[in-house]
Amino acid sequence: MPISRRDLILGGLAATGLPLVLGACRSGESALAPAAPDPTGTTSSGATLSSAGAASSTTQAAAGPASLAPTPACGDDPTPAQTEGPYFTSGSPAKADLAAGVTDGTPLALTGTVLTTACQPVRQAKLDFWQADDDGVYDNQGYRLRGHVFTDDQGRYQITTVLPGLYPGRTRHVHVKAQAPGGSPLTTQLYFPGEAANARDGIYRKECEVALSEAAGGGKQASFTFVLPA
């Protein structure tokens, strides 16, 4: 049987250890304005970023959970936008450890990839994250549990954070703005499987759930792949 271009691409991605869980949520809400430029040009450890603002592929690449959900085709619709919510703050710092200085909450490692609908990895895509803490509270004065990272040459990203708490009226979720170089930002939200509040949340979409598993050293590990327009 002939091998399609998609089979070759996905086979190559699998060989690199990339998580292949594609986000395919179907919310019809529109994306909002682009995230503000980086204010510092440095990582949380003080390392200077490149002109694209990216950390090295060595520090950003990580394997996903051992057991992942089925992978939809890259050619599906791009991951659609969801509401930004009231607590976005522009100018987040470049840092992969969103939970630096946070002592409460269940540790969460989130990894994944950013792909185009043509199944091509998006190099130097910016991912801006913000979320509530273990008590369901957002930091609106600073950048606690807020920050952005860039994908490596294979489109991979990695952050460490904590499992977000329950904000009144919402299920657990993490906000994200995903933006390819020179492209418009996609604003969406990530959800967690098995949450009782999922059924009561009018914004929640099952297709935007991460693949979730127990981390070997304790806490949780999750994976999600964003699909952006080619």
What labels describe this entry?
Protocatechuate 3,4-Dioxygenase, subunit A, mainly beta, 22% strand, 4-stranded antiparallel sheet, 5-stranded mixed sheet, disordered N terminus, 7% helix, 9 strands, 230 residues, single chain
Written overview of the protein:
The protein contains two helices and nine strands, in the order H-H-E-E-E-E-E-E-E-E-E. It is globular, with a radius of gyration of 16 Å. The protein has one domain (1-230): Aromatic compound dioxygenase (Protocatechuate 3,4-Dioxygenase, subunit A, Sandwich), CATH 2.60.130. The chain starts with a helix and ends with a strand. It has 230 residues and is mainly β.
Intertermini distance: 27 Å
- H/E element string? HHEEEEEEEEE
Shape: globular
- CATH first level: which class? Mainly Beta
**Overall pLDDT metric:** 78
Beta-strand percentage range: 15-25%
Helix content: under 10%
Which value, in Å, is the CA radius of gyration?
16 Å
Tally of individual helices: 2
CATH architecture title:
Sandwich
Report the sheet with the most strands, covering strand number, pairing sense and barrel closure: 5 strands, mixed
At CATH level 3, the topology is Protocatechuate 3,4-Dioxygenase, subunit A
- How many beta-strand segments? 9
Tally of distinct domains: 1
Low-confidence stretches: 1-24, 26-72
Structural class: mainly beta
